Amino acid sequence: MDPAPSRPTGTSRARVARATARWRGLPPPVRDAVGAVVVLVVLATPQVVAPERYPSTVVSVVALVVACGGLVWRRTNPLLAVGVALVAMVGSAAIDADSSLAFGPGLVAIYSVAAYAGRREAVLATLATVVAYPAVLVLVGGLDPTGSYVVLVVVLIVLAAALGAAIGAQRAVVSSARDRAARAEESREAEAARRVTQERLRIARELHDVVAHHVAVISVQAGAAEALFDKRPDMAREAIGHVRDAGERVLSEMSSLLHLLRDDDEPGDATPAPGVADLPRLLDEVRSTGLEVVERTTGAPRRLPPVLDLTVYRVVQEALTNAHRHGTGRADLSVVHSEGSVVVEVVNPVPGRPGQGGAALHGSGLGLVGLRERVAAVGGSVETGSRDGSWVVRVLLPVPAVPLVPADDPARSGATDPAQSTSQEAP
Predict the structure, then answer these.
(1) Is pLDDT of 354 > 50?
(2) Angle subtended at Cα 393 by Cα 389 and Cα 397, rounded to the nearest 5 degrees
(3) CA 338, CA 292: separation in Å to the nearest integer?
């Protein structure tokens, strides 16, 4: 015989889940009313099916209906439910000494007041029931106060109250944990937004303070040199000297800015900021931690502006860190150098089905947020997502047409870059 297909099982589970969700979406009084009807049917069925074996009186049946009616408010007003059940039990015991039918709903009401009301209300309701109901059984019904039935009644009332208190305490713990988790999530998002804002403001402020003034000087002096080049070459030469001095100051202060924008865990000494030339050392460090990195470089690396050079290094560092933390132990690194851009792509397989890697790799989210901010600061773009069971980080960084060069570069003294001289040769 062929085994049953698995699809109906999944469909049945989905139906159960939808039904459960609809049930939980109903107002508490409606659910409690359904529960009260269920208790009434369960307790009244033996009297209807086998009346000779389970005899009952009109008073006991009315007491059962009244006690079950009070259960409609067992969560919204548990003290009312206990009061109605206690009146039904005491009244039935006082009239014909048959209160067994109303005692069942009374236990449910005691459980509810202990689970949903305050501790003080639960203690008072339990004590009132323990004292009043057995007293009526002894004084009116003539039962022995130390007899098994009276003792059983007291024990069942106390057990119902204890069970309700335990369930209520567990519910409070779960609710508190959910509240803490929600507050922690809100705090994490707020902290991420705050850090992004602070980093953006710090970068903007430092770039403005360090670069804006000197760039303005360079622009003005370059314009003056162009205007004076033919008529006053001596003054044009002086203006060009000012341009050179301002450029050197920009480079010097940019170096300080790079140190300021370093990560908090990096030493604050005068060590130069890392760049593309330091990638082999970074890969060796990453491989020593157990991550298998397959590196592929396309095109000839060339001198990059300091900020861009640092950005390439940080992109590779962050992507490989994510691959090591959330991947399967392997990552493919591709660095493509072209005339106008540098493209860095890191691809690493992730556990689970395709499409699930994105959520897993975000973690706290601060790493990718910082990466996007750093790349955006130099005019680049970031693409992240799942592809064929792997997580992909692809960063495109534009390279300026005329990269910054150090002050002591031969180009400043009139020497020509080999690549430029080759391209300018006439046939």
Answers:
(1) no
(2) 155
(3) 26
Residue 37 predicted with pLDDT over 60: yes
Nearest one of 102, 26, 115, 27 to 70, comparing CA atoms: 102
The domains of the chain are located at 14-143, 189-260, 276-398
Tell me the per-residue pLDDT of 273-315, one tens digit each, with 9 for 90 and over.
678 888 998 888 878 767 889 999 998 888 888 888 888 988 8
Helix, strand, coil abundance in the chain, percent, nearest 5: 65, 10, 25
Strands 292-298 and 330-337: parallel
Is residue 359 scored above 60 in pLDDT? no
The answer to whether the CB of 92 falls within 8 A of the CB of 66 is no
CA distances from 402 to 7, 224, 259, 411 (A): 63, 21, 24, 12
- Residues with Cβ within 8 Å of residue 59, at least 6 apart in sequence: 91, 92, 95, 96, 98
- Give the C-alpha distances (Å, rounded to integers) separating 348 from 281, 325, 386: 20, 11, 10
Contact 235, 228 (CB under 8 A): yes
With vertex at residue 161, the alpha carbon angle to CA 156 and CA 162, rounded to the nearest 5 degrees, is: 95
In angstroms, the CA 82 to CA 328 distance is 59
Name the band, by pLDDT with cuts 50, 70 and 90, for residue 347. very high
- pLDDT of 407: 40
Q: Give every CB contact of residue 199 below 8 A, 6+ residues apart in sequence.
A: 370, 373
- Write the pLDDT tens digit of every residue in 177-198: 888 888 888 888 888 888 878 7
Alpha-carbon distance of 224 to 236, in angstroms, equals: 7
For the domain spanning 276-398, the CATH number is 3.30.565.10
